[in-house]
Automatic annotation (TrEMBL):
Keywords: ATP-binding, Disulfide bond, Glycoprotein, Golgi apparatus, Manganese, Membrane, Metal-binding, Nucleotide-binding, Transmembrane, Transmembrane helix. It comes from Notodromas monacha. The active site is at residue 350. This is FAM20 C-terminal domain-containing protein. Mn(2+) binds at residues 195, 371.
Amino acid sequence: MKDCIVSIMEKCSSEKTRTMTSVTNSESEVMAIRRRESRMELTEDGRIKPYVSFDGYFQLSGETPPTVDKNAMRRWIVFVVFILATIFLVSQLRTVGESGKVSLKTCEKFDFDEIWKLPEKWFQNDRLYLEKDQPQVMLTLEAMRCAKILAADVAKFGTQFKILLTLEGGQKALFKPMWYPVDHVITEGIIHGKDRHRGEIFALYLDLLFGFAKVPLVTGIFLDFNHLLSKGSERLRRTVFNNGSETCVIGECYYCKKEDAFCFPADKPVVEGALVLWLPEKIKLQHLRNPWARKYAKGKMAKWQYDPNFCQKNVLRREFFQGFGRAHEHPMFLDMMDTAVFDYLMLNGDRHTYELMALPAPKNGSILLLDNGKSFGNPGWNGYDVLAPLHQCCYLRKSTWIKLEPFVEHDLLLSKKLKQMSVADPVNPLLSEAQWEALDVRLKRLKDILEQSTSFAGHDNVSVLIFNTTREKLVFVRQFNPSAYVSSLPEDEIGVGNCVSVEKYPANTGFTVELCAGIVDKNLSLEAIAAEECGHAVDPRKLEKIVSIIGRPGLAGSSQNIFHVEVQLG
């Protein structure tokens, strides 16, 4: 049957060809028809099927194909492919003007009403999230980059310019714009300059690495400021003005002034910055002045910068540490030590206030690590005085040291780890190479600083000048005073009254052992320690401090504290 159908079709085809040939008067037309014979097909009812010839034109068999410019056709094909590719890419992206940021089509997967509930679920007593929550933390960062801006307003609180945004789903966030490029160096001082938005972003990754869970979620982002201002409140738009080819925004804050406004080119409105997620509503904040805050008046020093006993006298005795047993075991006190390490690594010397998550007594509060924008000012600064809390108090959480130890004791580079963690952030790299290198140097120095602080703990020298009013003699007593010279001699030269030849047995052949006079409680005042160690029944209130001599100005390194007291002895 199949062979029969084929033969009939061939017969039909040959008959049609003979018919067409008989009416052809031109040899060229005959050749054109013959070239198409092999491409003719029949429908079931015997009609000739249309086909597309090699030159791309739609034809009916039996018609002569028109002349084609193949180069023009190739150009048209390239143009069509370009248009299709553009349409595809646009479908995969949200434009800057629409959403305020460039993001992949995966943004459509987010249910923003649900995802903003996650931070509320994570919050546990004194932590913003748990280690098991970190995958969801990264997902929430992606959602922050995707969410559309519904409203924008001034952010009145704080000293620096920022804008309060309402994101898709009703979530609030703060936008802190870029003031400096990544390689900018601050030369004035550690507390000077405007906020560095990359410091805010870096803080989160450092927080994730060490597991403090005290930094709110923050991501780098690019926003179309024209789009943002179109969503702005009336009081935000009132602070906008044009300055030549630039659009400027004053905002409302302590340092917000027209001559210091944030400006961007009107024809290049896309601005880099940091987007900080608003804290969960159930977190109630309290403010506590940082005992180690600096004086902002030029030429003035804070007390902690010249008093080596500042921690004992001004921190450990504070009322909010009372009722918890030993003050140095209070969680908030240990938070202060963690904060000092955190700020030292980031070179942040501007933490003038602690932001506390309110907790019931006796814990009272837990320190959050907010406002990290004054970080990474100058890679040439050592930042030693940022660690004054450790130098002066000599305590650190064991869990914090365990997390630091792999980087301090071994060849692991903190910079390498944090580069890997932050590679997906839109403003990557977060730091210049000079800042990355300085970070590793500071971490390596941290070991020496901690060892010095530990060795100094409880071992500051306390000396007492005792004036015996009865005998009118001056007696000098020093803490850890008892000592003995140890050497060795032949048995035949040992004996009462024997004189030892100094030339034969010089003093440097032996050594001196200094014995501790007793166990000293580090939580006692220096006066109490002096009274205990002087060997006499002395009222600590009668001790008069003469002078304190310290090895490093501004830090509680090894210090010599000299007291005077009068006693009556027979």
